[in-house]
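Many introductory courses stop at the sequence. We go one step further.
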Amino acid sequence: MHETPRPGGAPVRTRAERLDGLPFTTQHRRLLVGSGVGWALDAMDVGLVSFVMAALAQQWGLGSGELSLLASIGFAGMAVGASLGGLLADRLGRRQVFALTLLVYGLATGASSLAGSVAVLIVLRFVVGLGLGAELPVASTLVAEYAPRRIRGRVVVWLESFWAVGWILAALVGYFVVPASPDGWRWALVIGLAPAVWAVVVRWSLPESVRFLERAGRTEEAEAAVRLFEQARPVTWRGTARSRGRDRGTVDSGAQDPGAGAPALPGAERPSAAAGIWGPALRGRTAALWTVWFCINFAYYGAFTWLPTLLVQQGFTLTRSFGYVLVITLAQLPGYAAAAWLIEVWGRRLTLASFLGGSAASALLFGIASMGTVVQPWQVIASGMALSFFNLGAWGALYAIGPELYPTAVRGTGTGAAAAFGRIASILAPLSVPPLLVLGGEQYDLIVVFAAFGAAFLVAAAAAFALPEQRGKALG
C-alpha cells in the first residue's frame, strides 16, 4: 500500500499506513486485552482437559486408549475449526467469527459438565474443538492488522502470552476444584462457560479489521475505525517508548526504527494472493509454516495434555501432580516476555528457531529427569519449567510471524490453514503417547516419549529458517 500523490503533490496515505504510523494507544490496549481475555479462556479450556483426564482415569477407570481418544477428539475439532474459521474470517469479518467461536466452545464446555458417559463427553469435546480451533488464528489476525508496524510482532506475542494466563487458571482450577470432590471435574467444566459470556463483550466492544472493511467496500466504517485509533491517547509503556514525541501523522519506515527490518515493500515486490497460499509466490513460506505448525503442535500437546496423568502414573498423588503442573506452568509467562522482547531485537525467524531449539533440549532433560524408580521432584519441576519457558516463547513467535506472511486477501485463510494442519499433529500426539510408552519399556518409557517430542521441536527449528524475515515490513 503505497502513497498516491495528490494533484498538488502532497502524498495521500492509505488507512493501513496511517495505522502503521500510530503509537501504541489506549485503543490498541483495549483490543489487545479484549482479544487476550478470549485467548486466555481458550487456553483454560484446553488446559482443563488434561486435569479432567487424570481425574476420570481414576473415577471412571479409563485406560490409555480412552484417554487418548478423549484428548485427541478435541484437536480433531480444532483442525476443522481452524480451517473454517480462517475462511469465514476472510468473508464475514474477523470480529464476527471471533465472537461466534467464543460462544460455540463456551456453551459446549458447559454442556460437557453434564456428560454421563465417555461417548457423550467425546462428542461435546469435538464441538468445543470447533470453536477453539477457529478462534486462535482469527484473534491473532485481527490484532496483527491493527498493531503499529514497528512493534507488531511484540504486540502479537503479548496477545499469545494470555495463553499462559489461561493455562495457569486451568492449573489453579485443576489443583483446587478437580480433586475437591467426585464431581470436581464437572464443576471445572462449568467454569468453562465463561467464554460464552465474553463473546458478547467481543461482539460489541472490539473493532472490525480495517483491511477487511476496505476489501468489503465498507469504506465509511473503515475510516471511522482508523480515526478512533488516531484520536486515542498514546500509552507510554516500555516497548513503545520510541513512539513518544512523534507526530500522529508521521509514518514509520524501517529506517526510522533502529534495528528494524526492511521498509514497506513496494507493491511490485509484494507476494500476490491471486493464486492462493499455494501459488508460486507463497508456496515456499506456506510449506515452511505448515511444517513448524505441525511439529510444535505434536510436541506441545503430546507433552502438556498428558503431563498430569504421566506424573500420577509415576507414583505422585493427584493433588501433588496437579501442584507440580501448576508450578511448571508459571514458567510460561517469562517465556513469553523474553520472546516479546527478542522478536523485535533478533527478528521473528531467529527468535522462533532459538526457542524451538531450547524446547528440544528441555524435552529431553524432562524425559531423563522422569526416568527410573526414584524420581527427584526438583529435577522434574526444573526441566518442566524450562520446557514451559522455551515452548511457550516459541508459540508467541509463531503467532507473530504467521499473519505477516500473507496479503490481506488470504491472511485469514493462510493462518487458519496452517493452524488446521498443525491440529492434525495435535490429534496424533495424544494417541502416540501410549505406544511410545510401550516402546520405551518400564525403564525408558518417558525418555522415549520426550525424546520424540524433542525431535519434533528440532525439525520445527530447522523449518523456521525457511520462513522470510518480516520484522519492520508493512502488511500487504
